[in-house]
Here is the input.
Amino acid sequence: MSADVSSNLPAPAERKDLLSAARTDLVAFEEFMLTVLDEWGLPTDNIIVSASDRQILLTNTPHVLGELNIDQLARSPYISKMIMAGAAGLFDAALSYLWDETITQLRDRVADFDVAYFFDLAEADPARRATLQTRDDLSKINDAALLDAANKIQLISDVAHKQLTHINYMRNHASAAHPNVEKLTGLKLADWLQTCIREVMQLKTRPVVAEIGRLLHNVRASRLADAELKNAATFFDGLPPDQANNLANGLFGIYTPDSADPHVLDNVRRLWPELWPFIDEDTRRELGVKLARFRANADKDRASRAKELLELVDGGAAYLPESDRLVEIQEALDDLKRAHEGWNNFYEEPPVARRLKDVVGRHGEVPELLTAPYVATVVNVFMTNSRGVAWNAEPYYIELIERFDVRQAAYALRAFAFRSVIPKLSDKLPQEKWGELLNLIAPKLTDRQDRTLLADVQAFTGTPDQLRKDTKIAAQIKKWREANGH
Here is the structure.
């Protein structure tokens, strides 16, 4: 039940008098403090926002808060701090408090669902994953990765992910969290508060996500009966592809630790062959990469368990790691993605991009298992973060693209259909970079099928984010995926 936040307030006329008096006192206090700052030689311009903007925030806030019930309001201390900061004219601080509340509550939702499963999806590096065990460890995952993993398991929707990612960007670039010169408005703050309330604070777990959570709990709890295993197999058949991949990572994470009980191992071994047909190629490759990382970290027991799962199913042996070099490339890709998503990516990306260039070598040789993630990551960072070009890193990205072989170029041509690239193509700067990418890879496309698709893509009159929806182009993508086992 929503709260009526105005029910305990004074009557409208009395409230108006109180607000008028409070505003008079606040203005007097602000003028006094600005005089003090000026006498001390400190800046006084653009320190606090106008009274009218604050009034807009305070006028809209009660309606937004009305979407929360009494208990939810009582558990939201950072919203109180946000409103106090906003009333004082410190909108940048208010945005920081709003984001603190949002992230705190999102971590609570993750912990309520299945924190171990979440960690398995959020952190691919076994060494880092080993340090993530409890709800308190969620703070070790940066906000962008937290949002990505929450979206990956569909705890938050695709639309919510885009909205929250934008608020996170503004928090990094227009709040008190970091130096900035951006100006915020009361209407924007009220709108962002409503978004955070609706998409996080009022979050309801989707049925399929809840069902996965129950299955993982049952796998850990006791030995599954034959009827439960049969029901699980039926459940797999109806899973959306992304959720089948997520569940595979969850079961893999349950199976490989030394502490796994015998009944847990038996449950996973019986479920794994049933789930395997629904796992896509990228996820199968990721499992092989995890095995290689276990070996690289001298974690022999986990490597042995991972190999058991891959060898348990038909065709699984094809995803065993080719060499230790695969691990180095994957680590560089993970570090580059992490740097690209950070708030100071312009400074963090260049050294990682240079390391990736060195690892793949002058001919751009990448193990076949990593072709898709390698191309996807390079294209993704080349497309920028939609706000600006990381100019110190861009020469490395261009060099890496110029090193693409025919197969890698074919993947890059189809990057408009990659999950990591799709959201960016609706923005202006990535659209410009998409045209540059096509020019870079065009000379490498020797296959007739690739040349035909290139011509159709270049002749397309819409924006790049609409390419995958074109019937003719979509048919070519489908045919190529089927031919290449995707």
